[in-house]
Amino acid sequence: MDLRSAQDYRLVQVFVSENGVFETYIALGENKFACTCPGFRARSWCKHCEFITERAKDGYALELVTHHRPLTDEISEDAEKFREWVIRNTKVMEI
């Protein structure tokens, strides 16, 4: 499944590592995470999903860049617009 175009998933966090750039998604209406990294494809779990799961216990909040565009309902309702908003307006994590 291509998470980048799936309408029932939303991008939660972008990660950068020595192995590349990976995106972690959440299934709408569920507490189920998925990631674009090779580890997730092999085991259906990875360190990126673990990081998101731990942060979600305290109410996950995206870390916004200083000058960010407001999040609107129109953006939230469209997977591609939301993905673009997250990429442009939140901090990339390194773990």
Overview of the structural elements:
With 95 residues, the protein is an alpha+beta fold. It has one domain. Helix content is 33%, strand content 21%. It is built from four helices and three strands; from the N terminus they run E-E-E-H-H-H-H. It has a three-stranded antiparallel beta sheet. The longest helix is centred in the last third of the chain and has 11 residues.
List the main descriptive attributes of the protein structure presented here.
single chain; 95 residues; alpha+beta; three-stranded antiparallel β-sheet; 4 helices
Query: Which range does the strand content fall in?
Result: 15-25%
Question: How many strand segments?
Answer: 3
Q: How helix-rich are the residues, as a percent range?
A: 25-40%
Number of helices: 4
Main sheet: which strands, in order across? 1-2-3
Rounded to the nearest angstrom, the distance between the terminal CA atoms is: 25 Å
- What radius of gyration results from the CA coordinates? 13 Å
Cα shape: globular
